[in-house]
Amino acid sequence: MLKIAVLVSGGGTNLQAIIDGVENGKITNTKIEGVISNKRDAYALERAKKHGIKAVAVARKDYASREEFGDALLQAINELDVDLIVLAGFLVILPEKLVAQYEHRMINIHPSLIPSFCGPGYYGLKVHEEALERGVKVTGATVHFVDGGCDSGPIILQKPVMVEQGDTPEILQKRVMEQAEWNILPEAIDLIANGKVQVIDGKVVINK
Ligand code: GAR
Q1: pLDDT tens-place values along the chain, 208 residues long
Q2: 3-class DSSP assignment, residue 46
Q3: Residues 6+ apart with CB under 8 A from 37
Q4: Is residue 147 helix, strand or coil?
Q5: Ligand 1 pocket test target in 13, 122, 128, 182 with most atoms within 8 Å of CB
Q6: C-alpha triplet 153, 21, 46: angle, nearest 5°
Q7: Does the first or last residue of the chain, that is N or C, have fewer Cβ atoms within 10 Å of its Cβ?
């Protein structure tokens, strides 16, 4: 059984897709041990509680320095004793220690086809604003392992989504979530939970 922690900052629709996936059998062999948010008022925490999942807030403002905050975050994660960390809209720069400790055991969902529209400053709606600004006709989402860089780790799954005439960032964000994010994040967890994902020479190989 793969034990996971889900880290969130906001509304938690990707968390919901994971909870639903575990409950409806799309994600097998997996238990959500807890949800951690850096925002006390994140709706994602309510979603966790509604499903009887431990919900913890570790807020930056409660700590004097970034380092203390990072240590508290690491401690909260370690207390859950998990095999995999899932970043589902977790908008915090991660402490190096955390990244090192969970190498190839931490994944992230990003709302574009990496390497487009990713890296420092590209998160949430900003990603879709930039995609529309550039005039791309196809965008999508990516699930990748987290390494020491920003959106630079080995890619596990990607799914394309068409941009349509008249899209606003909000409309495009919703389509990318519905058509890509909420599918590939649960799928990636299921693949990992069933031992089907390997990293070889810095690249992901999936043995279906
Ligand atoms: C999602 O679109 C996710 O891909 C994005 O934040 C949103 C969170 O929504 N993450 C990033 O931009 C990371 N760089 P949610 O709280 O409803 O899942």
Answers
A1: 999 999 999 999 999 999 999 999 999 999 999 999 999 999 999 999 999 999 999 999 999 999 999 999 999 999 999 999 999 999 998 999 999 999 999 999 999 999 999 999 999 999 999 999 999 999 999 999 999 999 999 999 999 999 999 999 999 999 999 999 999 999 999 999 999 999 999 999 999 8
A2: helix
A3: 7, 8, 9, 44, 45, 55, 56, 57, 58
A4: coil
A5: 13
A6: 90
A7: C
Closest-lying ligand 1 atom to the alpha carbon of residue 15 = 18
pTM tops 0.85, yes or no: yes
b or e along 130-163 (b: 16 or more beta carbons within 10 Å of the residue's beta carbon)?
bbeeeeeeebbbbbbbbbeebbebbbbbbbebeb
Q: Which of 6, 7, 9, 14 for a ligand 1 pocket mutation test, highest count of atoms within 8 Å of Cβ?
A: 14
Atom of ligand 1 lying closest to residue 173 CA = 2
User: How far is 23 from 144, CA to CA, in rounded Å?
Assistant: 23
Is residue 35 within 8 Å of 53, Cβ to Cβ? yes
